[in-house]
Amino acid sequence: MSGYSLISLLSLCCYLLMFTTFLAARKSQKIVRSFLVLLAFMILWNLGSLFMRTEQFPSPYFWHQISIFGLLLLPVAYYQFFADFVGVYDHHRRVFWWIVFLSLFISNLFTRFLIPLPEISYNGMQAIFQYHYSNAIYIIFFVLLLLVADIIFMIKKKPNYQVIRKSLRPLAFGIGFLLLGHFLATFRVFVGIPIDIISGVINAFFFIYVLYQKKIFKVTMLLSKENIYLISLLFCVILFSNLAFKLQVWMSNVLMLKSYEIFVFVGIAMLVMTIILYMALNSFLANFFLQEEQVQNDALANYTSNVTQLLRVNEIFESLNILIKQMLKNWNMVAFTLVDKSGYQVVFSSNPLECLDFCLDENHPLATYMKETNSIVRWEDFQKSNYYRGVWEKEKQFFSSMHAQYIAPLIFKDHLIGFIILNVVGKTKSKNEDLTFLQSALTITSVALNNAQKYEQAYMEARMDETTGVYNRKYFHELLDEEYKKYRNTSLALAIANIDDFRLYNQMYGQKEGDNLLWAIANTFQTAVINFGHVARIGEKEFGIILPEYDISSAKILVEKILKQIQSKQTGFQFVGHVTLSVGVCASPYLASSCHELFSNTEMAVSGVKRSGKNGVHIYSEEVKNRLATNGNYQSKYDLYASTIYALTAAIDAKDHYTFSHSQNVAYYAKSIAEEMGLSEELVSMVYEAGLLHDIGKISIPEKILNKAGKLTEEEYRIIKQHVENAVDIIRHLPAMEYVVPAVISHHERYDGHGYPRQLRGQDIPLLGRILCVADSFDAMISKRSYKKEMPVSQALNILKLEAGKQFDPLCVDTFVRLVEMNKITVRL
Fold it and tell me: How far from chain centre, in Å, is Cα 195?
């Protein structure tokens, strides 16, 4: 084998080694597939050259055409590689260049006008191949220049042209070597020298370097067991082929071995040497290259195992920060994530002193640049791009304060869900291996982050009120309980805001405007307390505002200020018409000794505002003070609607004589219980009025059901239960009487939670409702009805005692039984 043939063999081995290596790479990436096509044409070119120079079957000229086929199609493979490298997928332009170069090959195949057949001469047994090119060869160079111009035009059209140009420099050098080698091969001085093949090998290594920088190729990819064995075998074949003649002479003359013995001996020696060389190379390369990578792989495996179990965004970035600190030492990071598709918010920083309330728009130039590059890039490359011009000066100062050096996208299914900004502290220089490791970690992080964002979104949606966008009632009570425990030893204020005459507002302006009003009021409160408090919609027209570390006075001042903004429509949230709110305020620990008491007292304060004409703010302590100061001067709003209520009860009496007297009896018993329990005059009056109105909903119940002698069917019982909600609907048309609704709607609730209509339990049932329940049940038991006889008073009292803690509040039962047994009240029979 001649020296020139040996060069062809070595280059072919290099290309085959690269090809087998990249076959195991991520072929799903277009750039890897393009590089494999490129290598395939290089292999054809070198294989044809080798078999031609060694005059293999069928003829040297056949292999010459195979070599020319690979050579002429190689530029198109380069074009395709460049297009995939920069992300340009113009199918028509690719097809055009394939047709052009295939046409060049076919025309040369039949005319040999561009590249002639080689002239073969012999120096002894050695064949010498010489090419004598004509000026027609420069047609190919001209077409190549057009192809290069198209590549340059394609690259310049990319927005991140400066970054791409920098990353393409090694490719430019490689192609320069390749073109130079082919150009020099046309001169007579290089006739017979395979300088074109040598330049091709150099070019291939430049391409591998670029793929290495792009994190697609790693040195360790070459270090598979198959490749190490192939290298060892090739080395031994080349060594023994050069020593074969000398070994044959020495073993024949000195060792006196026969030909077949020499063949066996050389084969065994070659096999043993290949195995020894393989073991030595494998051990050396593993210690030199793979040790650090194995540590990184183990770290990534542990990180994957841990981070995939996390469902909080902050926890994921804390875990990533720990990994970076362990593996990359002096690296710091600031993480941005996409929040509700409205922008990228800083959610984590290695330095806790850095600003965490910084936000970038979803279409910010930096975000757009990240989507375009889709890889880790240097900050200075971003500064050189056109996108940097669109960054505000304040934002530039923020990035400068972080000493940004790298920006890395977090991509999930082609969507930018976040990115991180990194810097390297001190004089430590980052290596490509560091960036490769970081890219792997970020790929894992992107998957975990997407899962966490979906979980947090679902978690928040379960907590939010759909109409207003603030917290819902269920989460409000959880949050109130948490905040109460947290601020047990300091202060916690609670305000409840109830929209006055909201039903009338809906009737006047429609439900759509009603929903808009709810949204406007909710967001006005939310805007006012966003940095320190919590807002929730806790009823159809009611909002709860939790104010940690607020005392009663400061909470009232804040609420009054917000109400003025709403009434003057200076909130920035538009709504039609004029609106007023009734707001109650209470604070712990001075005015409430439990979370439940805090909520109840605040509701009581709201009722006080409603009773005093609506449109105001009352604090619970103020109400207590006013009750004591105005004892005996309280005037009920019942008188305003007495005639209306009397007319309704008279209508019920016409259908059911029992209901009218029953309501008066219940009101009397309930008032007596409330007085005995020491409730204020206002509450006593409220429970009395609620007693008069508690069965007003029976006006809509059919007479045949009300007066049925036998047991009610399930359907009839369902209808009779509707009288509670019917009563509430009637009372709501008496705006100044709304304060009795909590008592009326809960007078059929059971203390054990099995009542109706809301299945409330224990202390969650309003106190006045619990009082009504005892009074209503007692009068029902001792009264004669169409379906039962009257019950003796003693038996009714025993039933109350037995059901205490089950159907009835034990305190209310004890109070009522004591009043009857001590003859403090008259039992009405």
Answer: 56
Does residue 304 carry a pLDDT above 80?
yes
Spatial neighbors of 712 by CB under 8 A, at least 6 apart, are: 705, 720
pLDDT at 804: 93
Please say whether the beta carbons of 693 and 645 come within 8 A.
Answer: yes
Distance CA 526, CA 534 (A): 7
The strand ranges marked E within 589-643 are 616-619
Angstrom CA distances, 156 to 34, 377, 380, stand at 21, 19, 19
Q: Cα–Cα distance between 804 and 1 in angstroms, integer?
A: 110
91-111 vs 137-156: helix crossing angle, rounded to 10: 170
Collapsing DSSP states into helix, strand and coil, what is residue 829?
coil
| Sheet of 331-339, strand order | 359-361, 343-349, 331-339, 415-424, 406-412, 377-378
Q: Which 8-state DSSP code applies to residue 347?
A: E
CA 462 to centroid of chain Cα atoms: 16
Task: Tell me what pLDDT residue 596 has.
Answer: 87
* Nearest by Cα to 265 from 255, 278, 279: 255
Helix (H) or strand (E) holding 304: helix 291-307
Average pLDDT over residues 769-788: 88
CA distance 188 to 767: 111
Q: How far apart are CA 55 and CA 712, in angstroms?
A: 109
Pair 409, 435: CB distance under 8 Å: no
Q: Is the pLDDT of residue 599 over 50?
A: yes
Prediction pTM value: 0.45
How much is the pLDDT for 633? 44
Nearest of 580, 498, 504 to residue 733 by alpha carbon: 504
The predicted model gives 558-572 an average pLDDT of 85
Per-residue three-class SS string for 93-122: HHHHHHHHHHHHHHHHHHHCCCCCCCEEEE
* pLDDT recorded at residue 292: 61
Burial-class residue 421 by CB neighbours within 10 Å (0-12, 13-18, 19+): buried
Rounded to 5 degrees, what are φ and ψ at 711?
Answer: -75, 140
C-alpha distances in Å from residue 804, one per residue of 416, 674, 814: 62, 17, 9
pLDDT score recorded for residue 624: 46
Please report how many Cα atoms fall inside a 13 Å half-sphere around the Cα of residue 174, on the Cβ side.
20
Comparing C-alpha atoms, which of 657, 656, 729 is closest to residue 693? 729
DSSP state string for 793-805 = HHHHHHHHHHTBT
